[in-house]
Amino acid sequence: MQTLTFKRGVHPPDGKALTQDKAIKVILPKENSELFFPMSQHIGAPCEPCVQKGDYVKVGQKIGEAKAFICSPIFSSISGEVTDIRPVLTPGGAKSLAVVIKNDGKMTEYEGIKGGDYTQMTNEEIIAAIKNGGVVGLGGAGFPTHVKLAPPPGTKIDYVLVNGAECEPYLTCDYRLMLEQPERLIKGLQIVLKLHPNAKGVIGIEDNKPEAIKLLSEMVKDIPNIEVASLQKKFPQGSEKHLIYAITKREVPSGALPAAVGCIVDNVDTIISIYNAVAEGRPIMRRVVTVTGGAPANPGNYQIRVGMTFSDLMEQIGGFKVEPAKMIAGGPMMGPTMYTLDVATTKTSSALLCLTPAEAYIPPERNCIRCAKCVEHCPMGLQPFMLNQFAIRGDGEAFVANHGLDCIECGSCSYECPAKRQLAQSIRATKKIEAGKKAAAAAAARAKAEAEKKAEEAKK
Question: β-pairing, 48-49 with 62-65?
Fold first, then answer.
């Protein structure tokens, strides 16, 4: 099988040996423990709580209502009493209004959970089931899946790509799902292909996962519109644009979405969640999390209930053998650092990486030596050393003019920099500022246009 890849990128040690052979273990929250459900677990507008303090809720009951187009509902993963509705800290470092529920330990299920035969459902019914299941991109971005799967009318979709690359070092949760739940993965892909019957389904898997490639290749060999693609182990192979290029050789233009080049990309766990939502009527309530690094006493892959705190999870699996010097929600290349484990897990929580002092050591930042390694390895073809200078000077105009907003924040530049310049960190911060300005300007333009329209209508 030919190994596919993209231009540039980096090759960090994968660190997967710690957990790749550890089967998924189910961890349930303790009775009387509190679980926290932030109303913002996705890209887009936050949900609005649809329960009140004192209400009794059940497993699978909706507790957060999606009122905007780009939004996704939130469901309780336990049964128990709503004890509070207050802001809580999320893994990304921001605060979000959250519904707090005290677990009664009974796991009483909501009566409305019911799936259907997707082969007998209309496309509209399938999309509705995915939306009502709160399915979002579980690879980290959290984009509402029902929006992604329904591109504008007239858009031709040629490929549905399943992102099984799992290119972030240390993470193995998707790998274990491919080995342990392959039937759900394939059926979930078939559901998406029913929405786009002229498309080909391709499951892209990095070549450091030969068992998954072998298993899924065997299982889809008699399915004419699904195949498995072997990808070169390289970071960031799992980035949407780079996965698309590796498999189809199509390039997504700056500012465009994958649908612009006839592609839809979804993560392994997202596809499985589509099956769960459509065929079984089960919304996203669980998450497989890789706990790894040199500090945890028992690294492994754990299926937890969304809303559990990382501290509760660590307590149940034996805590730490070494005090961690750094804790990251996700992988080392793109995951945010956390200063506490008293943080609620969300739909997009894929890993808890706890590093020892030796693993977490980063040499001090030094002056740029003009080696251009950051340029050589940037998967987006940018010039990170220049963007870093614009960021330091606060020159947002030059930053945008040099395509700083196209940065995917993968960290390849910082990884390769021999001077250990904080390239990705400075670019990420400036990108956030400039993207905010752009969004504010667009909102102001919309408000002005609406005001002018109303004024014209008033004249008539």
Answer: antiparallel
Q: Largest alpha-carbon pair distance within the chain?
A: 75
How many C-beta neighbours within 10 Å does residue 220 have? Answer: 21
> How far is the C-alpha of 296 from the C-alpha of 240, rounded, in Å?
31
Q: Binning pLDDT at 50, 70 and 90, where does residue 430 land?
A: very high
| Residue 267 three-state SS | strand
- Residue identified by tokens 């509190």 is 34
Residue 1's pLDDT is: 60
What's the fold here for domain 1-30+134-361? Rossmann fold (3.40.50)
* DSSP one-letter string for 215-238: HHHHHHTT-TTEEEEEE-S-BTTT
Contact 266, 174 (CB under 8 A): no
202-237 tens-digit pLDDT: 999 999 999 999 999 999 999 999 999 999 999 999
Say what percent of the chain tops pLDDT 90: 84
3-state DSSP call for residue 210?
helix
Structure tokens at 404: 């700083």
Write the single-letter amino acid at 239. S
The domain locations on the chain are 1-30+134-361, 366-460
Provide the pLDDT for residue 140. 75
**What are the residues facing 287 on neighbouring strands?**
304
